[in-house]
Amino acid sequence: MSPPSTFVDETDLHALVDGELDPDHRRRVEDHLLLHPGDAALVEDWRRQNAALRAAFEPIALETPPLSLRTAATRAAAQSQGPIETGATHWGRPSGTPRPRRIEDLRVRQRRQAALISALLLVSGLALAGLAAFVFAGGRSEAPRAPAPTAFSQGYVSRAGLTYATYTVDAHPVEFDATRRDELADRLKTRVGFSRIPDLSAQDLRLLGGRIVPGVSGPAGFLIYERADGGRVGLYFERAVFAAAPPAPRGGFGVTAIEWRAADFAFVLVGPLPPDAMQAAAERAAALVTTPTP
Amino acid sequence: MRVNSEILAALSEATPGLRRYARALGAGAAAAVADGLTQSALQSVGARLFARELRPAGPEEARLEAYIAVTALAARKLVDAPPPGPRHPAIVHGLAALPFEERAVLLLISLEGFGYDATARIVGAPRESVLAWLRRARQALASDAGAPAEMTETTDAPRAHPQAPHLRVVK
Q1: Contact (CB<8Å) B43/A76
Q2: Tell me: the pLDDT tens digits for B42-72?
Q3: Chain B contacts of A98, Cβ < 8 Å?
Q4: B27 partner at 20 to 30 Å CA-CA among A25, A60, A190, B13?
Q5: Residues of B in contact with A70 (CB under 8 A)
Q6: pLDDT in tens, A34-67
Q7: Which pLDDT belongs to residue A43?
Q8: Tell me, what DSSP letter sits at residue A83?
Q9: Which residues pair with A266 in a beta bridge?
Q10: Could you tell me which chain B residue has the CA closest to the CA of A90?
Q11: Is A269 helix (H, G, I), strand (E, B) or coil?
């Protein structure tokens, strides 16, 4: 007659094998096994499994582990490396953990420096190219090959206006005064190529003198006439290398400028007189410069 | 800050067992990888000890942490481990055929001598799951060996969890 074994199940058998039973429970399960050879065989089979596992792997525990393994925890704690990459395998190389990171950082830094240098070179090249293009384009825009008539007309007028503003208010407005008219004519003939000095006394304009001034494309002549009330009128002339000027007089800054062309020269009469008086003076001067000197 | 030398000594003493456990988890086929896992786990525990992230109450708990680290690493790194060679015994081949959880639980209990509660903590699963995995692992290994895997019908108590048949082609 078998004793009751109501409380013994498979979990108890595993617990018996694994030493998880208290003494009373263990005795009860062992009694159960005595009466149930099938369960006893099962338990015996599991114990054989355990023995086979230990036989297969126990020699590993008996080996002396590599130094890197024996000192792994101590080294990590002593070197204060902080959290490490737990998935990495660093066996056989003590203190080798940070080195790949340093190399990688160095390479990243080198790549960044190379990229920065490339960007700087690119920007510098673009800046140089832009500067060269600007200089080249600027030089060509001032070249006399294909001038725009209005621009060059404005060039003569502007130069005449500048010359007038520079010299008529000066304490020594002329280089050669009226008493040295012949000397002035010779100098104008030599430098400018035109030596006819119109007499505008009919317009109440007395010749004060003249000088050689820088023109748009070469030396220019500048004659200064003075009215009785002190107002001064300038006649600017330069060998014209550009197209004809527009006939309309131009005004600004309190003066009037009238430009015309004669004998391959550009003439600009600049003065503060009323436009009618300026027009009359210009017509008179234009008539005189085209008349051969007796 | 100094780490308790007693804890470090316990980890050092546990190293041979950890190495054995990692090698068995790899089913004898990836010795180098298993040693690497052990070293990484020990370094991880050492670093956490130094950073005060880990404050084990005693040497045994430090040892437990080391096994937890090895198990967690192995679960990721040994997924594609190659099968054992022909020279390995049959038990190793049977071990390699087990799912990772069953293999880990069987090794922790049968090879490393941990109790059920400690094993549940190492694998991070409830005690009931640990018992179920252990049962299946032993049944699978017994089936591989051709031994009877079922309890005799003389047990009076009904089975709480009837065993599913494990059919496995072995040849």
Answers
A1: yes
A2: 988 888 888 888 888 888 898 999 999 999 9
A3: none
A4: B13
A5: 12, 15
A6: 999 999 999 999 999 999 999 988 888 888 888 8
A7: 93
A8: S
A9: A238, A261
A10: B36
A11: strand
Q: Does residue A92 lie within any of the structural domains?
A: no
Check residue A230 and report its DSSP letter.
Answer: S
Domain assignment of residue A276, given as a range: 149-289
Classify burial at A54, counting beta carbons within 10 Å of its beta carbon; exposed 0-12, middle 13-18, buried 19 or more: middle
Residues with pLDDT less than 50, chain B: 1, 146-169, 171
How far separated are the first and last CA of chain B, in Å rounded?
58
Contacting residues of A for B39, CB less than 8 Å apart: 68-69, 72, 89-91
DSSP string, B93-105: HHHHTS-HHHHHH
Question: By CB neighbour count within 10 A (0-12 exposed, 13-18 middle, 19+ buried), where does B12 fall?
Answer: middle
Are A6 and A133 part of one and the same domain? no
Number of domains in chain B: 1
Q: Tell me, yes or no, whether A132 and A176 share the same domain.
A: no
Q: Are A272 and A254 in contact (CB under 8 A)?
A: yes
Question: Where does A175-247 show beta strands of DSSP type E?
Answer: 176-177, 206-214, 219-226, 232-239
SS3 A126: helix
